[in-house]
Amino acid sequence: MKSLKVIISNKQNKVKVPTGTRLLIRRCCNAVLTMENFSEYAEVSVSFVDNEQIKELNSQFRGKDRATDVLSFPLGENGKYDKNSDTGALMLGDIVISLEKAVEQAKLYGHSFEREVGFLTAHSMLHLLGYDHENGGLEAVRMREKEEKVMARLGFPRGASYVIE
After folding, report:
1. How far apart, in whole angstroms, are the C-alpha atoms of residue 56 and residue 54?
2. Residue 134 burial by CB count (10 A; 0-12/13-18/19+): exposed, middle or buried?
3. What is the value of pTM for the model shown?
4. Kind plus residue range of the DSSP H or E element containing 92
């Protein structure tokens, strides 16, 4: 991979963004692109929001009036992406993560906040690259395998990152 610019913005104030979260996001984005042999200059935008904000976006863009954990807004189709005229980078799209939902799910699944945010980022990056799990089947299985492969490469393998109480 040539280069990746990850633009991260915090648009919520309900969850304090832990030190290292922004670096983790960048590492996840890079790991997905490396795994997928993506070799172009690229950029992606990541926004942190709260449950109310993501609920509004989910309702507006997907017709689902409920909070969700992450939304992906790809800017490409069939491997073709818009190009940033200033930098020449391919614009993969936007990732929106509810940090409130990430905290909830980390507790629910019994693993760290870092693993949850990393997983949501990897999941969303795969959506930006054209993967889809909505219809289930082989595509959903393939996507889950790729998510777990990225998490293992980053030191968050399934089972190894679970919180022991």
Report:
1. 5
2. exposed
3. 0.91
4. strand 90-98
CATH topology of domain 3-153: Collagenase (Catalytic Domain) (3.40.390)
The residue ranges of every structural domain in the chain are 3-153
Pick left, alpha or beta for residue 63 (phi over 0 → left; psi -120 to 50 → alpha; otherwise beta): left
The single residue listed with the structure tokens 């945010």 is 117
Tokens found for residue 147: 């998510």
Burial degree of 48 (CB within 10 A; 0-12, 13-18, 19+): buried
- Structure tokens of 107? 């507790």
List, in sequence order, every residue forming a beta bridge with 4; answer none if it has no partner.
42
Is the Cβ–Cβ distance between 7 and 44 less than 8 Å? yes
Tokens 């172009």, located at residue: 40
CA–CA distance, 148 with 64 (Å, rounded to integer): 27
Q: pLDDT tens for residues 64-81?
A: 999 999 999 999 888 889
pLDDT tens, position by position, 85-134: 999 999 999 999 999 999 999 999 999 999 999 999 999 999 999 998 77
